[in-house]
Amino acid sequence: MIKIGNLTIGEFPILLAPMEDVSDPPFRYVCKMFGADIMYTEFISSEGLIRDASKSVKKLDFSEFERPIGIQIFGHDIDSMVQAALYAERAQPDIIDINYGCPVKKVASKGAGSGIMNNIPKMVAMTEAVVKAVKLPVTVKTRLGYDEDRKDIVEIAERLQDVGIQAITIHGRLRTTRSSVPADWTLIGKVKENQRMRIPVFGNGDVLDGPSAKRFKENYGVDGLMIARGSYGNPWIFKEVKQFLKDGTNSAPPDIHERIEISRIHLEKSIEWKGERQALMEMRKHWGYYFKGFPNFKPFRIRIMQAVEYEDLNQILLEVAAYFDGVQPVSQMDGSIEYPDLSSGCHL
Q1: pLDDT at residue 84 is higher than 60
Q2: Which are the catalytic amino acids?
């Protein structure tokens, strides 16, 4: 069984990645319904947290149903990161996670996220300071390296382990690599092969379905997988991956009625957490992916985007159910599943 500190998380855990503006409590709820083993909050600014900024503090919210859960923080100042970790610990998550992977310019240019990979000594010192400050297990999410000339992840993983982290998730791209470029798992495998590594090593990047999950597991020996883009509008991917890893079979894709049921649960949880108006606005980015591949869906999507009350939107969903009853999405029928490009945010 894989353990993070004293936390037992299964034989081969499947994790939901922290994704800005995506992995909020309502989305995490539906992912947990389908078997996500560990989930993380959206990444939280250390400076925002210690200044008690409402947006940052709101991201600390989670329910008991979501456990085990990690709160992920990022920042460039060591003292601020320590204070933020202590603040986050008061919310009583199971894990404190440090984001060393976000490639977005406004984050990385300040030496936070993947930008800190340009200064490995500071990265190690920051990690050690956070580990010493909190009682909870500390984990790290990072990338292969700063750029093509500095693919330092084997050294980084060992050094972060030596200062006390309890697990590491490695995204198979560099700070400079766009999401359109396939993830390179070779160095993730080398980290796992390092005989000095004792902590769990999780792989992330292009885990999009059961076959890809099996390929990464078998070829690179990782202790578990983290799913990011593959979960977007597709929370049932956790169930599908686990089934494929267990017996090599693909579960039937959810039909229109199942998609509506899950998306409605997502919406209702959003309303509970944010209020009706904000929930309807923020759910707009999800509808297209929940119903991706259904022919002639555009007129329904336009109406959904214009809905400003739950009852109106619910009526549209009833019409969608009737119109697409018995129809399978094109992306499922021809096998060419497309995934969103989320390179503008920290989703990878």
Answers
A1: yes
A2: 102
